[in-house]
């Protein structure tokens, strides 16, 4: 029964969060707590010749200082997170994956490989003393040649980031299906070659990273609070790096103020802080400051695609060939995650039968690159939908017609793309109707009337344009998620889940799911998340996966619990299970509602040593644990339409309207879904128009403040017009698909296509993000000069 699923239930967590009653890592103060500061490398590539800590050690209040040499052989380095990103053998074989092992020492030992890398750590009675001491530490470096450009990094003789990784190529693979693309290109009416690139970005959550560790010497227990998306992975990595048993470590992700990807994975600070807490038998706290965040927090995106596309006069795309590189920075912790996401998502909603993608993950002297909202898909969609636009302009067709020509039709679902998903399953879209979504979006923006409006605007000296983009996104990636449900003496259900939120509203949506399965209200179901002490296994929040994985674990676990409650109710009411009704917390028989049981009655009846005794086949207590393992990902989809106005003289772009139709299967809480879409689109618009991390050739960060790294504010982000489709997933019993990342995927392509459309008379190509005023102004100027000289010539 769906009473609460599908309802706009107010978010349970919001009162706490908006009244300042949340508990973030920064809010944790413990008796005797020390504070840590990290000394970070100012060099992008250099040998560490000497670290002089004499003066720093003498400062009153300093408790300890560690360098890489102090912990060499004691703390293991952080390597690839295999639980989340190992290549399945069948995929590895199909794509000929070649991988080199790489890692990061938690404090650099002999050499540094990026600016901001931790080199030493100070703990002191407070942060002020720790900061002063850090300033007194003198590190002598011997500069090494720096490699920043990923193409130069692959040249023979280029400086090596890791000595064992030749030509700095940490990983490469080759995905193909259909006919050889070179052959197809020979038969095609047209062949177009282009380069498309997406810059390096930061995720910039409101709350930076932070960790507090408290060791209890009497019980040998370590408690860690971390602003993380993956408490279970933090526990596993602490256990691995420090050789402690997992049972002795409890990791809690309290309230977390945004993560967006880079708070997934594990960072050096999350290992060192617990180590120091145990060493000194005192709590230790570290909170990343904003400058550290901009320099050292993991970054993302950064791909360059060299594409060759073959197509016919009618707009049919016959083949797509792409050689792309992903600049992973100094260490790649996530294996083929982002690169393979790009490779398997590139065709999106289009059917392109002949497909040949070569990917190389290249190391450079920059901050490590990890997944960020979309994780390889925004890059894929920007590449694909720019190609669609270019094909259309080459053929003098409306881009919409080229989209339609190549789009997978509803009757072709489930659609097999002929390659593998990252988890090793065949890439088959489970459900959806992309042409219908496109039609809906076009109606919402009055596409038919747009050209007349555009012409009228032009007469008034205004340049407006419309751009469309679409995506199909594999969401709900496994491997699994768990739910542990129990009932207490007040009759409330407490559910512990493996996935934990950073703002998504999990306390509400999982309560809605539980309430429906159990005939309760969402207030009767209390969600506890982000604590490794209850469930032995958990995966975490990333890849728009929690609703599918934790949601179905909750649903199926709740049904198991319901069964037990029914069994006990049958015993108490003397009826059979088919006769039991569970509604609004009341349990009664279909035949008669005279005798009504509550959950407290059922709880009391199942207490150990209850009188009369329970039949032996019924175990005392009301609790179940359930793990949901999805068969593979489920495919959400969306159409985005941007309408922009371009100021030709300054290159400034205003977004007039932004429209989005999306399908996330069954929405559990449509209001939260809308919020997710709006938030994702804000980040997507940021990456379309403003955001770019820039390094100079010495590997020095040039965008280390918000004066240089531009984020959009509410002033630049329109209220998105949203429309919904509900094509339930066929891969889980709730019929849900993910939505968390979706909003961020399509805006770069939709906005850029709209800018190109607004300036169609200039025939400019924009294949590099962000479309900043200076970049756009330069393109406009070049196009005007070209037109001027051709008129003269
Ligand atoms: N939802 C729903 N019905 C659906 C699908 C989702 O009601 N059919 C609701 C969910 O139950 C959940 C939210 O929408 O409250 C997002 O669900 P889902 O798509 O499953 O994504 P996750 O919960 O796994 O969250 C991860 C995803 C990712 S990968 C990034 S990055 C991201 C995002 O969510 N980071 C966020 N959204 C974010 N939102 C906030 N506020 N902060 C972040 O750091």
Q: What overall geometry do the principal axes of the alpha carbons give?
A: globular
**Backbone CA Rg:** 28 Å
Name the strands of the widest sheet in spatial order: 3-6-1-13-10-11-12
The number of distinct β-strands equals: 29
For this structure, the quaternary state is single chain
Q: How many DSSP helices?
A: 22
Unreliable parts: none
Report helical residue fraction: 25-40%
First and last CA, distance: 73 Å
What class do helices, strands and sheet pairing give?
Answer: alpha+beta
- Say which molecules are bound, naming each kind only once: pterin cytosine dinucleotide
Arithmetic mean pLDDT = 96
Strand content: 25-35%
The largest pleated sheet is described as: 7 strands, mixed
What does this molecule look like?
The protein is α+β, with helices and mostly antiparallel strands and 793 residues long. It has 22 helices and 29 strands. It has a 7-stranded mixed sheet with strand order 3-6-1-13-10-11-12, with helices on both faces. Strands 4-8-16-15-14-9 form a 6-stranded mixed sheet, with helices on both faces. Helix 9 (231-242) crosses helix 10 (268-280), helix 13 (377-395) crosses helix 14 (399-406) and helix 13 (377-395) packs parallel to helix 21 (747-758). The protein is globular, with a radius of gyration of 28 Å. The relative contact order is 0.12. The structure holds pterin cytosine dinucleotide. Pterin cytosine dinucleotide binds next to helix 17, helix 18 and helix 20.
């Amino acid at each position: 029964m769906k009473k609460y699923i599908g309802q706009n239930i107010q978010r349970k967590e919001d009162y706490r969060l908006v009244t300042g009653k949340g508990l973030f890592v920064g809010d944790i103060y413990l008796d005797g707590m020390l504070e840590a500061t990290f000394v970070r490398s100012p060099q992008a590539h250099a040998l560490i010749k000497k670290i002089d800590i004499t003066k720093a050690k003498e400062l009153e209040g300093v408790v300890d200082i560690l360098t890489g040499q102090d912990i060499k052989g004691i703390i293991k380095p952080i390597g690839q997170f295999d639980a989340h990103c190992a290549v399945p053998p069948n995929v590895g074989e199909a794509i000929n994956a070649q991988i080199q092992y790489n890692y990061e020492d938690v404090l650099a030992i002999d050499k540094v490989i990026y600016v901001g890398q931790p080199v030493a750590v100070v703990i002191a009675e407070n942060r002020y003393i720790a900061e002063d001491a850090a300033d007194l530490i003198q590190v002598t470096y011997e500069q090494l040649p720096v490699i920043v450009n990923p193409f130069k990094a692959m040249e023979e003789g280029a400086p090596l980031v890791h000595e064992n990784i030749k030509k700095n190529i940490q990983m490469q693979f080759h995905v193909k299906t259909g006919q050889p693309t070179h052959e197809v290109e020979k038969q095609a009416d047209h062949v177009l070659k282009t380069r498309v690139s997406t810059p390096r970005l930061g995720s910039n959550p409101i709350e930076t990273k932070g960790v507090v560790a408290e060791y209890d010497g009497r019980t040998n227990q370590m408690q860690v609070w971390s602003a993380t998306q993956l408490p279970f992975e933090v526990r596993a990595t602490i256990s691995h790096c420090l050789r402690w048993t997992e049972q002795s470590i409890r990791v809690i992700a309290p309230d977390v103020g945004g993560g967006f990807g880079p708070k997934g994975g594990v960072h050096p600070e999350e290992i060192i802080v617990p180590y120091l807490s145990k060493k000194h038998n005192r709590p230790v706290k570290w909170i990343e400051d904003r400058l550290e965040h901009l320099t050292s927090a993991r970054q993302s995106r950064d791909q360059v695609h060299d594409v060759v596309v073959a197509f016919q006069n009618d707009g049919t795309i016959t083949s797509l060939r792409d050689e792309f590189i992903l600049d992973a920075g100094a260490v790649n912790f996530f294996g083929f995650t982002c690169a393979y996401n790009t490779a398997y998502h590139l065709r999106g909603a289009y059917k392109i039968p002949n497909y040949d993608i070569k990917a190389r993950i290249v190391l450079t002297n920059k901050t490590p690159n990890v997944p960020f909202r979309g994780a390889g898909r925004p890059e894929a969609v920007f590449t694909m939908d720019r190609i669609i636009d270019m094909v259309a302009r080459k053929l003098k067709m409306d881009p919409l017609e080229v989209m339609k020509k190549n789009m997978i039709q509803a009757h072709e679902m489930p659609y097999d793309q002929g390659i593998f998903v990252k988890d090793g399953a065949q890439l088959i879209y489970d459900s959806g109707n992309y042409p219908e979504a496109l039609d809906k979006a076009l109606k919402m923006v009055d596409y038919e009337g747009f050209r007349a409006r555009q012409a009228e605007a032009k007469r008034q000296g205004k340049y407006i344009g419309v751009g469309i983009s679409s995506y199909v996104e594999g969401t709900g990636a496994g491997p699994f998620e768990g739910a542990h449900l129990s009932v207490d003496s007040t009759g409330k259900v407490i559910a512990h889940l493996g996935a934990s939120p950073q703002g998504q509203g999990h306390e509400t949506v999982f309560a809605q799911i539980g309430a429906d399965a159990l005939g309760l209200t969402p207030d009767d179901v209390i969600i506890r998340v982000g604590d490794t002490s209850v469930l032995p296994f958990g995966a975490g929040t990333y890849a728009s996966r929690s609703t599918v994985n934790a949601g179905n674990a909750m649903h199926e676990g709740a049904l198991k619990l319901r069964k037990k409650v029914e069994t006990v109710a049958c015993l108490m009411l003397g009826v059979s299970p088919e006769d039991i009704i569970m509604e609004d917390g009341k349990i009664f028989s279909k035949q008669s509602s005279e005798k009504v049981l509550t959950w407290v009655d059922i709880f009391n009846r199942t207490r150990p040593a209850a009188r009369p005794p329970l039949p032996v086949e019924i175990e005392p207590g009301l609790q179940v644990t359930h793990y949901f393992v999805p068969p593979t990902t489920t495919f959400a989809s969306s159409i985005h339409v941007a309408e922009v106005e371009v100021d030709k003289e300054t290159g400034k772009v205003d977004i007039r309207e932004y429209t989005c139709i999306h399908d996330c299967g069954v929405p559990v809480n449509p209001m939260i879904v809308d919020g997710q879409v709006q938030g994702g689109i804000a980040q997507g618009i940021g990456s379309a128009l403003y955001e770019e991390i820039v390094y100079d050739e010495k590997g020095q960060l040039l965008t280390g403040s918000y004066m240089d790294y531009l984020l959009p504010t509410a002033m630049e982000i329109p209220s998105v017009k949203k429309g919904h489709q509900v094509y339930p997933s066929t891969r889980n019993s709730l019929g849900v698909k993910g939505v968390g990342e979706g909003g961020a995927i399509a805006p770069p392509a939709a906005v850029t296509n709209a800018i190109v459309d607004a300036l169609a008379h200039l025939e400019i190509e924009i294949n590099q993000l962000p479309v900043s005023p200076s970049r756009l102004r330069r393109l406009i100027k070049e196009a005007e000069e070209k037109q001027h000289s051709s008129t003269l010539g």
